[in-house]
Amino acid sequence: MNPVMRLAGAAIVAVLAVSVVVLATRPASDVGPPATKSPAPSIAGSVTPTIELPAARALAPTAVIDLAGMVRDTIPLTTDGTDVWVGVDGAVIHIDGQTNATKRIDVPDMSTGNGEMVMALDGLWIEDYAGGRFLRLDPVTGFVEVTGTAESPRTIFFVDDQLWIGTSGGAPGAHLVDRATGALGPRIGTTNDIAIGLGDLWMGGQAPAATSIARYATSTGASNGTVDVPPGTGCVVGGSFPDNVWAACRPDFGTCPANSIAVRIDPVTNGVVTTARICGVPVAVIDGTPWFLAGQMDGTDIANSLVSGDPATGRLLAQFD
Questions:
Q1: Are 231 and 211 in contact (CB under 8 A)?
Q2: What is the pTM of this model?
Q3: Which residues contact 45 (CB under 8 A, 6 or more apart)?
Q4: What dihedral angle (degrees, nearest 10) is formed by the CA atoms of 50, 5, 74, 44?
Q5: pLDDT of residue 161
Q6: Could you tell me which residues come within 8 angstroms of residue 124 by beta carbon, excluding any fewer than 6 positions away?
Q7: For residue 278, is pLDDT > 60?
């Protein structure tokens, strides 16, 4: 999997959700401040909209947290719905969601570009991809309370009270974690790129040949069938269950085919019900509107755009750089 896209998507969900809700409810012609420079043309060239998109606008931040000198790579972050925790090299930064005040918590095992993190009632869980392990920390002191081993842990997330970890080394797959001991359950599936909904793990394949989504029961690991999708869309599943579930493949920066699509899946019939002309992966559904992360090259720099779509028709609604 591509950790840059994965972590960028996590950042959007955790930090921009409130801003996107506000912006998405405004008319498209009056969304956000004008861009200070012309947006990179690659998104327009990568996406064939069914309606004309408004001009791309830059999202203005409501706050900027200075992490200068503390990061070398993509930063993991998580939220409890009020505050935000950001992983930097050698520490976790706690950001007060109301005041933006920061507090540094020394965590020697934390480093950027080295896995994800997630906040839960029992503590802050972080991954150490390079070290082949994951840890539960006291989010106030940074004290390590639980340590578990996993081969190249890449994704970590909760569904209700279940903690799941996706591994990418050796035999990739998903594992249920014993939160008290850190022990891993049996491997399910063959990828670490996972969505969970309706009691199933949803797993795609590798682009560009991916033409199906596999379903596995979270309780037993048994196969619950597959969903056939158009070529090049069966990679990543995202959105919200049961009525706003999308599948797509990550764009290859700067080389998105003009005919790239994302598809909306009906998890009851296992069929495709909507097609959106977009080169990007689903990262969030906010107020019923799906948002996708589209990657591009702006000169020599990696850039990203948020693109929203109409869940009923697949028409593109807005684009933010």
A1: yes
A2: 0.76
A3: 256, 258
A4: -30
A5: 86
A6: 78, 85, 92, 117, 118, 136, 137, 138, 139
A7: yes
